[in-house]
Write a structure and sequence with these properties.
Order of helices and strands: HEEEHEEEEEEEE
Number of domains: 1
Low-confidence stretches: 1-16, 19-23, 75-90
Strand content: over 45%
Radius of gyration: 19 Å
Shape: globular
Number of strands: 11
Length: about 220
């Protein structure tokens, strides 16, 4: 199934977003939900009427995993030549595989199964595909004491995906707040992208994307 058909197959209304809870040491577990509005074919109820139509599509973690797994399965060199895993699921990833990030400011995605990192998304060839969180300038408030350091950042966040053929892509931005806490007992982070908006293209069809991004967890930042 090509990526455009995959996305159309999950066409339902929803909100674009990412939420994260730490389930694996050193990472923020990511959960993706998004709404993509795509122009569809005109319809003609009668000889005097033309209706212009838009489709709403919901995309979740499963869909993102289904998009990126074939890229590595068919194009990546070792160590990703062992796709599909056994037992196979999500186009090659083991059942229960999850998307995670090290931290918001690192922005690189990983796929984990249980407590094992099975894929670092950015380790493929540079022209394979793109999937990342990014940010621009930031300002911050906070405090630093003998027992705890806290920084509250404000920045502009970006969430971007481009497949290896450039046929399917989206790029969205939103005002983002990030809270990083450093203590002797460990490090933690939370982030939220609000007013998220951007555009994309799927199978040559224009798309508009909107929503929010949330994340939190204990991790090994920096």
């Amino acid at each position: 199934m090509n990526k455009y058909k995959l996305l159309v197959a999950v066409a339902v209304a929803g909100l674009f977003g990412l939420s994260a809870r730490a389930s694996i040491s050193g990472f923020d577990s990511v959960n993706i939900k998004c709404t993509i509005l795509m122009q569809t074919n005109d319809t003609y109820p009668n000889a005097n009427t033309t209706k212009f139509n838009v489709t709403k599509m919901k995309v979740t973690n499963k869909d993102i995993l289904n998009l990126i797994a074939p890229e590595f399965a068919t194009n990546s060199p070792s160590p990703y030549t062992n796709f599909p895993f056994s037992p196979p699921a999500l186009n090659g990833f083991p059942p229960g595989s999850k998307l995670v990030v090290d931290n918001f400011f690192d922005g690189e995605f990983y796929v984990v199964s249980g407590t094992n990192v099975i894929l670092h998304v950015q380790t493929g060839p540079e022209d394979l595909f793109v999937l990342y969180l990014e940010y621009s300038n930031n300002v911050y408030t906070g405090s630093d004491t003998a027992s705890k350091e806290t920084k509250n950042y404000t920045t502009i966040g970006e969430f971007k995906y481009v497949d290896g053929t450039d046929a399917n892509n989206f790029d969205v931005y939103g005002l983002t707040t990030v809270k990083d806490t450093f203590k002797a007992s460990g490090e933690s982070e939370s982030f939220k992208m609000t007013g998220l908006a951007g555009d994309g293209s799927f199978g040559g069809t224009n798309a508009v994307v909107s929503g929010t991004v949330k994340g939190s967890g204990k991790n090994n930042m920096y």
